[in-house]
Structure prediction request, 707 residues.
Amino acid sequence: MKWFKVVFEKLNNRFGNSIISPILRAAEGFFLGESNKSLEGPFIYDKVDLKRLMSILIIALLPLLVFGVWNNGRLSGEDALLLQFLSGSKIVLPIVFVSYLVGGFWEVLFAIIRKHEISEGFLITGLVFALTLPPTTPLWMVALGITFGVVIGKEVFGGTGKNIVNPALIGRLFLFLSYPAYMTGEVWSVDVTTSATPLVSNAATLRELFIGTVAGSIGETSKILIIISGLVIILLHIASARIVFSSIISFVLSAYFLGENILWQLCSGGFLFGVFFMATDPVTAPLDSKSKIIYGVGIGFITMFIRKFNLAYQEGVMLAIILMNLLSPLLDYISLEMYKMRRKNAKVS
Amino acid sequence: VAIQSGLVSEIVRDCYGKPKQIVIKKGDASSVNIHTLNDYDALVAVGLLSFIKERPYNMAINPEDKRKLVINAMNSAPNQADAKALCKQCFRQMQLAYRCLKDSLPEVYFFCKAGERIFWEHLGVENIIEVSGGHPAGNASVHLAALGMENEQVWTLRAVHLAMMGDFLEHRQLPSHRWVSVTGHDVEDGFYYLPIGCNTNELKKLCCENNLMVFGDLLTGRVGNALASDCAEIVFIRNEEKGLPLCSWLTPRFSVYAKFLNPILKLSKKVNFSTQVHGGERAMVFNNIYDKVMPLDIKMDFLVRALLKKDLSEALSLGLSEIVPEDVALCEFLCPSKLPLQQLVKDAQLRIVLGEVR
Prediction:
């Protein structure tokens, strides 16, 4: 530990004001943590910072990643548990690695150009993006998708906290529009079936869909794990319960009125993953509590609507979230204007 | 400015209305005889009414305006001096000051903790309003909102300052000492009668060297070289360098507000605070955490966004004039992006006072 500190001190003395200083600061923060002291009020701070929130989210996503590794190993035909993990690792981990490597590269590059701190946001974007991909997505495509997501979806807007759509989703959408065959399950590899999470096929039972022992996007198959991890982040105030529950309720009601099997609809596709881990992105979701409910209702309804009426591409959650992301500034604007009007009236009265 | 030290004779403004020069005429101490003045005028003469602040923006008062006064004896901020405990040390002085203000001002409201009404009635206090709840229930803005006076020009005063005002009224001599609550890490808690202006080296004898001495409470206090007359509390807080474990940020830690976790994870209720910020400043990410500790009808996320954009008109329409920096101190404590919210509010209000927005 002390050795590490000394190394960073020396590096800071040597390169502290150079072009690589953001990388040094980020590395120091990553390994040693930030030991800033308060010099003016408040003199005490809560232990949770943005990095810590991200770390909790990463920990919440890890079960989905581990399950994805095991499930894809199992689907590749291995019988022994260890071999299933090994085989699954060979399929899944390169995707995650490339996603992090390329996403991290862009993040660092922009931080150097803009001379600001490297945001830890790419740690989430990189993982969420990888989890939404079918397991046999070519690695060059992963690199392309995350590049589009980070650069066009986030950095051109000014970086973390300023993007208007979820960068992981915009990267996924880019791949979907550019290479639909890879993203919708029409390409088959030797080792494993590549497809989005089952929606069209009725080959799987409801139980299999719920547990997740079906082919699909890496992190989207196991609904039970998604629900558990999702509830954890809701309880820790990382995800908004309003968005999640209004989305689910609206989705269930839409499915009911459109005459669909509700449980089947909930357990198939990537709806639950999208709602728990993407729709709740605090940067792209609305701020106001009423707007959040409308936003959630919109996601649930649009997802079900696309599933029912768009036969070419039935998984609508990605499009629904992006559409509602784009609408969320408007929702916030309307609720803010109403709030201001209410305040004005209260002052007058 | 106290009459004896000087009088503001002229404020020269530039073409935008911003004050360019403030001309202070030297006061003539011999022209004022504080022994012959009535209590209120005597307080004005020696400048002790500077403890009273005028809302909005916590500005210095004009003693001639004589507005409604809200006295705050509810101390909810961490390590804030307890007015009731102080009152036991200097009952008579507080009584004198309260009577003087009550007789001179049109209306005086007195906010105290729930269950303390009888104690304060014994002091002769009227118009008592009891408040319960954790911080920031003790902030004057919350009390004003409860009275529906958040948009009025009102005076506010912390009850702990009554002691010093009363001390003067009793002897008609500007006090050289004041009662200060001393607490914190590694120090014997209690009220100390300390000389105003005494330097920090002397005060540090109360505690070990490694601690940081904070004048004021832990959320809104400041560090300084000497005890100011408006300082009612000194808090010592751990400030030693302590190495963090490798990759410590990967181990999840939970907010003190994640209350449901305490029984589940059996977390200790005792929190050892230090001056560690637990992170660095980052881009603002809205997660509605501010709203959990903002009892006023203010949408903090939007207000902070307006402040970061330096959009004062928007900030005003979102209620900037109804708060003072201490109201956002708890939001700053919780802020995951570690943004300097108090400073943002302070700067914005200063710009408004200086006339940048009309």
Observations:
- The first strand of chain B starts at residue 6 and ends at 13.
